[in-house]
Design a protein that fits this description.
The protein has 301 residues and is an alpha/beta fold. It has 11 helices and 12 strands. The protein binds zinc ion.
């Protein structure tokens, strides 16, 4: 159906998956694996007010066509910004768009938004965190969304497979009949950036539960740590976060140098960052916890 028209429009590959599943890491690996990316655009949607993911990618790939869409999710709150970005790209010689969705996006909604004049949704990959997926699925605030994201995938990408045993991996509650990849599979790096024009364009099954009022809503706040905070103190603050906090990421100028900070499902990781971007951490939590989250940060000592 309308396949000729679809072949002449620009394919958009959608990469989604819950907060902290490794979308940015995967995109960085895709960009590093290819030399000539002049005709590829990467659109990065970050739920927080500052686009940390875009900063991480742009730092590693300063020459790339990397566009930032921040301060909301394009599938629900900032759809107009997405349209504007696609309009902007239409003026460039772009042959393929790789969209990094926000961690709270619903793949089927994104798919519909990619049905934009001049574009077509090509394939929708959803990342599943092998280490944390089961726990997230059972979470009373976010379990519904995490399960929905995996259910709406055309293809599943399983990350952090090195952190789990083979039996644990095989028992992940996902639909194994769908095409699935390990996130470090070299074939995947090509697939994400060079969509095969003959590949079947598949619409995710409409999920009647998509309008479910239990669908999780999220809030974010941006916290500026005190200047030259010690790594020890920063670690203590992160370790003391309430259990409803889903994700923390950003850059902090600590007494021990500039660090990239990642907090996923209670696990804290720091890595050295080449340049100071100002200190700020974006913190994401269920919307119902917004007041509690603000209170927590106002009262840090
Ligand atoms: Zn959304």
């Amino acid at each position: 159906m309308a396949s000729n028209r679809q072949l002449s429009t620009v394919p958009i590959t959608i990469l989604s998956g819950y907060l902290g599943t490794g979308k940015t890491t995967l995109i960085n690996r895709v960009l590093s694996a290819h030399q000539n990316l002049d005709h590829v655009a990467v659109l990065v949607n970050d739920f927080g007010s500052i686009n940390i993911d875009q900063a991480i990618i742009a730092q590693a790939h300063p020459q790339g066509n990397i566009l930032s869409l921040a301060n909301g999710c394009i599938c629900c709150s900032i759809a107009n910004d997405f349209s504007s970005a696609l309009e902007h790209l239409a003026g460039l010689d772009i042959h393929h768009v790789l969209l990094e969705a926000s961690g709270v996006a619903e793949p089927a909604k994104l798919h519909r938004q990619c049905l934009y004049p001049g574009y077509h949704p090509h394939s929708n990959f959803v990342l599943v965190d092998a280490l944390n997926f089961r726990k997230q699925c059972a979470d009373k605030y976010v379990g519904y969304l995490v399960r929905l994201q995996a259910a709406q995938a055309d293809q599943l990408v399983i990350s952090k497979t090195d952190l789990v045993s083979e039996p644990h991996l095989r028992e992940l509650p996902i639909n194994w009949n769908k095409p699935n990849w390990h996130s470090d599979d070299p074939e995947l790096l090509t697939l994400l950036i060079q969509p095969d024009a003959t590949a079947r364009i598949k619409t995710p099954n409409h999920d009647p539960a998509a309008a479910n009022p239990n669908s999780a809503a999220f809030c974010s706040l941006t916290w500026q740590p005190p200047s030259s905070i010690s790594l020890h103190k920063l670690n203590r603050i992160l370790a003391g976060l309430p259990s409803y906090v889903q994700r923390v990421k950003g850059f902090v100028d600590t007494a021990e140098g500039v660090k990239q900070v990642h907090f996923v499902a209670g696990n804290i990781a720091f890595s050295d960052s080449p340049q100071a971007q100002g200190s700020h951490l974006v913190v994401i939590a269920p919307a119902s916890k917004q007041a509690a989250l603000e209170f927590h940060f106002r009262n840090l000592s």
